[in-house]
Amino acid sequence: MSERLTRFFASRRGIVLVGAIIGALGSLLQKLGNPPNMGICVACFERDIAGALGLHRAIAVQYIRPEIIGFVLGSLIAALVFREFKARAGSAPLVRFVLGAFAMIGALAFLGCPWRANFRLAGGDLTALPALVGLAVGIWLGVIFLKNGYNLGRSQKTYAAVGWIFPLLMVGLLLLAVIQPVFAEGGPIFNTPEGKGPGALHAAWGISLGVGLVIGFLAQRTRFCTMGSVRDVILMGDTHLISGLGALLVTAFLTNLAFGQFHPGYTAQPVAHSNLIWNVLGMVLSGLAYALAGGCPGRQLFLTGEGDSDAGVFVLGMIVGAGFSHNFGLAGTPDKLVEGTLQVGGLTPAGMAAVILGIVVCILIGFSMREKLA
């Protein structure tokens, strides 16, 4: 039975079905309380977790998102059931941390990761289109480095306990979310007050956790990856993974139509800005960082469930990067309608400099970590 399931999930039908399920569940989460056009955003949700833990004090985005916990634990369950849990570590961890931090800085410049870019487009947000082009450009740059010998080295088999660390961290995070302990007066765990920002908008935690578990399980089986789908097309002309991403987009669009959540437009979209240049460049940075690290933010979470602690270092880099982004004013600000007048959002000068610096650093990493080709 397990062999038949493995073959199914490895097939095109399997990846298309899983993509369709993710698209439907993401739009359903929006209907049940998640922010508009943010049914699932791995970067945004990790940013909210960083805020809940006090790594930044942006009151609008503070909440322990159970979907992230579910992604890891769902992947863990799948890896254990199908005997694919393999503790491994040691492949340039500090570089992965830096890539994770800059991936988050780029994502928050755009106000979303590749997952949210697709959900934004499925909800009618046309600013996602140029951003997705920027993402593809970033991945294309990463593919150039891959073709020229870029390699972070192989992870080494290690103690099983090492592979369990990140899933256990997620269990601890879940306990914090449920119990909501008070450690010090005025201290964490922080939660965005109602009406104060997207952090206050969320489905019931049990539903969010359940959706995360389902997606984590299915994505682990199919190797679902938004970055990998584009990389495979550019690198090998392989459309297997991107067929799943296409199914996500179509199903999310149809679900949004059914729920009345499709509102096409370019300006004043929910938690989005229409500053074209920095939408594109932010996603160029993110796409390049994901390509150099070997997976999109969702895929990195799924890998931690399989025992990959290098992926865990990348995730921690993203969470710390979220703290830096908000503490130092690097994150984008959304468009606003003030008395009927559009105020276009975008980046501060510090945010612009951080995006450019991130692109430069990623290019230097790509050049400096190349094996000599025979």
UniProtKB/TrEMBL annotation:
Pfam families: Sulf_transp (PF04143). InterPro entries: Seleno_YedE, Sulf_transp_TsuA/YedE. The chain crosses the membrane at residues 12-29, 63-82, 94-117, 129-146, 158-179, 199-219, 240-259, 271-292, 313-330, 350-369. Keywords: Membrane, Transmembrane, Transmembrane helix. This is Membrane protein. It comes from Ornatilinea apprima.
